[in-house]
Design a protein that fits this description.
Elements: H1 2-7, H2 21-32, H3 39-48, H4 56-91, H5 98-102, H6 110-118
Helix pairs in contact: 3-4, 4-6
Length: about 130
């Protein structure tokens, strides 16, 4: 209870701040933020992995960390896709105009996702055939 009262204090510019105040302010901001991954899904996966988190702020913090992890992987895969497509257009003569490459739509493929995940230590092997 003392932590909640301390985190809701308004700090004057003249008053020295404690080490816990930035963390308290961050936890207060977590209450208003809704991450892409819902709290119910994060809580479910935490329970199935053996962690029963009761604090909703902790669940929301883990949701934000998972969202950041997924967005980093997607961004790296996009960069791989752009490099692969620019290499393929330059090897074919590069006859496309610069405006045509601006409007290009990208598709997430396993060829782009595998090296992006490998940077994070996750290895995926595509099966030789699909049934």
């Amino acid at each position: 209870m003392a932590e909640q009262n301390e985190s809701k204090m308004i700090v004057d510019d003249n008053e020295p701040t404690t080490f816990g105040q930035p963390l308290s302010n961050f936890l207060l901001q977590l209450e208003d933020y809704s991450p892409t991954i819902p709290d119910a899904i994060t809580a479910h996966f935490l329970r199935t992995s053996g962690c029963d988190a009761k604090d909703p702020r902790l669940i929301r913090l883990i949701s934000i960390a998972a969202q950041k992890f997924i967005s980093d992987i997607a961004n790296d895969a996009l960069q791989h896709c752009k490099m692969r497509s620019s290499n393929s257009t330059s090897s074919h003569g590069g006859s496309k105009s610069s405006k045509g490459s601006k409007d290009r739509r990208y598709c997430l493929t396993m060829e782009d996702l595998i090296p992006a995940l490998a940077e994070f230590g996750i290895t995926i092997k595509k099966p030789h055939y699909y049934v």
